[in-house]
Amino acid sequence: KGCAPASALLPLSPAPLHSNYHEDGPPSYYDNQDFPITRWDDKSIRQAFIRKVFLVLTLQLSVTFAFVAIFTFVKGVKGFVRRNVWTYYVSYAIFFISLIVLSCCGEFRRKYPWNLVALSILTLSLSYMVGMIASFYETDAVIMAVGITAAVCFTVVLFSLQVRG
């Protein structure tokens, strides 16, 4: 007797589960002022977003390709890395340390322009590691891997541009 029905205890509007990111879950869409109310139905907004994403991806792949080219085609660099294997292991350490640090710094990587700095750090460390790995392989195998990667990325870009929302 005297107890309110269960439906009276439920809020009428969908309330966010978490009001702060530092709690157990991700930030709520409803509480986050960084997510302005936009119309994703607008084709021009979607296309601008896709252009930005693929511009960033293209820049990342270009940097990685430049590192791979240096570590593959410059005989002195390739020879140095092969003679000093510790540089190979250092590249793994640099990448994993930067990955862990950036994973732990949520505020840093979620604010503009620091998100671009974080992405640049991660791209450079990964590119350095990939370049070091490429120096231990024959040039033909590296060129084939780069070609396959470029073909797959180009295909994904073409597919994404053809998909209607």
Structural key phrases:
165 residues, mainly alpha, 0% strand, flat
Low-confidence stretches: none
Could you say which overall geometry the principal axes of the C-alpha atoms support? flat
The average pLDDT is 80
**Strand residue content:** under 5%
Which helices and strands, and how do they pair?
Blueprint: H1 6-9, H2 43-73, H3 75-83, H4 86-104, H5 106-109, H6 114-134, H7 139-162
Keywords: Membrane, Receptor, Transmembrane, Transmembrane helix
InterPro entries: Bax_inhibitor_1-related (IPR006214)
Transmembrane segments: 53-74, 86-104, 116-136, 142-161
What is the structure about, briefly put?
It is a multi-pass membrane protein. By secondary structure, the protein is mostly helical.
